[in-house]
Structure formats: structure tokens, C-alpha cells
């Protein structure tokens, strides 16, 4: 099984936390001021006219866009393109009309909200603290079926992230993010709190260092989570009570201790020392076989990800070939294989694996055909691959509507993605990119 790279989060965004840790709000603005390391930090947010400040689910969307931007090779202009349904998947949301509607709202809030950070934005390569003013999404374009503006399964989205955010990510001021664990948390506010806590553990001037305990005045922590308190600590405690319980139950926090009275209350977080981040792809595979997340983390600490990845691949092959017959549960059978690896045979390599090894050893005399790039893909996956390949060469020429139409045509079998890509690459080689776009649009309208 291929292990995918871990996801990441931008340290400026997650450490400052620009998303209100509440599921629903009606706030149009907020601002906080605090001292950190002898510096005065001021952060403010002003929402757009029609929307409240970013909150709750908006954290899922911002985290997904950051990882999409990194996966796309961190383009200097901050521009990324994605299908609405693919973005739902990256957010860990269900593919439904309800969540398509929520996605549109989240993107609008992140596009329209205006953030100002004074003295708290880290220019890490130059070891300086700077001022930043931006919209998280500086430009937003998308396609819809009609004038209502509702997303549908064809909708394509093009966003441009803020220059400050792009510079922060490209400078490497990022931290690992266990997005699989985050998306498995039940409530938006719990996911926001997890993201904020995971960043607060890290020394902003030395990201390689992190702590196992954190202590804050409750009211100050409420400001960090952007929870309106009116100077009353109990409001913050009540808002975070359920998230605290879930993070303890899920094994991320060992303990949350409240001390003091009234405005002078403090909260101390003790992180579970044995909480282990696990590659999302590996975690998903174990879940498919019914192994609990906590057990997977324990197994990773004991055996390491490489051994477990090889073992689960071996287990799948033994099941598929019929060599292994499960008598109780697949989880129990997999656990027995992990504990007694020498009791089981190693499956013979498949013909495709033998061929792959031979091709690695023998020089390739010809380039693989473009048809092979799309072989075995579902129409939706084939459309996404075509669009991403074309975007490398036609980023400034193709519009959101063009991507929408291409996706529709591929999904419905009207065009061959391999043939379109072949024509597009040929046009690039011949210096005829504009002509290719014209012909592409003409063919779509016939």
C-alpha cells in the first residue's frame, strides 16, 4: 500500500487562529490584543456585508486548501483549482447537496473576511515579526448551473490564496497536521480547538520544539480561540467543555485542569505523551478492517509505520487470494498476523508486480502512452487528472467554466481525456495554445 505524505498546516494561521471556535456565530467582527514574548500582538477580523466572521466548518476548508496548495507544488501565484466534490472529500465531508451549500458559504466567508495582524505574523526566514493584512482567499471564481449560485456536482472552483499566506507556506513555516484524526472529530468546534492546541504546543521561533503541557488564563485562551466572553470565564469554559471531553476520550489530551475562580481562572492542558500521529492512508486501511484508531496508534509506536504498511498489504493479498480465511473478525485476523508474522505465508507476487519490477530493471525504449495514464480510472478521477495536467500548461488561459465543461464531457463519455491531453500537449509544443483553447470551446458548443 502506498503511504501518502503527511498533511501540513501553516504555523502562522494555526498559531494565531483566525477561525472562531464555535459552530454557529452571528458576529460581524472581532479583535484581540495580548502580550507574547514581550511583544504586543493585535489581531482583528471584519466580515463581509452578507456573512458572519469565519467560524466552525471554515477551519476544515482553510486546512483543506492549505494542503491542496502544498500538494499542487506551492505555485508562486497562490492559485489552485479544484472540483467542488473533490474539495468536499479533502474537507472530510459527505458528498451531498447540503455540504455543497455549506462549502459555498465557507468559501465566501474566507474570501470576504478582512484580517489584520500587527506584530504577530512570523517572517521565519528573516527571524522577524511583521504586520499582515489580507483576505485568506484573495480571489474566488467558480461555476454553477444557474444564476442562483448554488454549487452542483459539476462545479469547478479557482481560488488564489493571500500573498502573506503563500509566502509563509513557501518559506517552510509549517507543521505536520493529522488531518485524518482532525476530520474524525465529531464537531466543528472540536476540530478548531484541536488545530489551535496542536499549533500552540510549538515554539513559534523554533518549530522543532514542542511542549507537553500548556497553561493559560481562561479569558486569554478564550481570545485565542476567538470565543466571545464579555469578560466572563464561564462562557469560555462552557463553549469548550464538550471539545475537551472528546479530545480526552480520543486520547489526544491526557487531562484538562481548571483552577481558580471567576475572571482569574486558568486552564491547564496536559497532552497525552503516547498520542502518535499516524499516516492518514494507513489509518484508513486499518479502519476498513475494523481496527480502532487507538490500537493503530499503539501498533505504530510498537512496530513502526513501515512494518504495518507492509503487513496490511500482505494481509490484503492473503485475503484476496483466498489463502487466508477469516474465522472470527478481520480485525482479529489482522492483529494475529501482526503478532505472529512468521506463521503466515508470503503471497506470490502478482504478474503486474513482476512486470513492474522487470520494467524498472530494463531501460524503457518508448514513452508510456497517454491512454495508460487514464486506464482504470473512474470518469470523475479521469476528469480530475486531465484538468490538473492541462492546468500545468494552460493555467492563465483556461477559465473555471472551461474546467467545468471538460469535467462534464469526460464524466459523460463525450470526449476521451487521453485524446484531449494529447492535443493540448501537442499545441504547447507547436506554440498554438490559444488556438487549442479556441478549438476546445468550439467543439464543446457543437
From TrEMBL:
Superkingdom of the organism of origin: Bacteria
InterPro entries xref list: Replication_initiator_prot_A
Protein's name according to its UniProt entry: Replication initiator protein A
Source organism per UniProt: Deinococcus terrestris
Taxonomic lineage of the native organism: Bacteria, Thermotogati, Deinococcota, Deinococci, Deinococcales
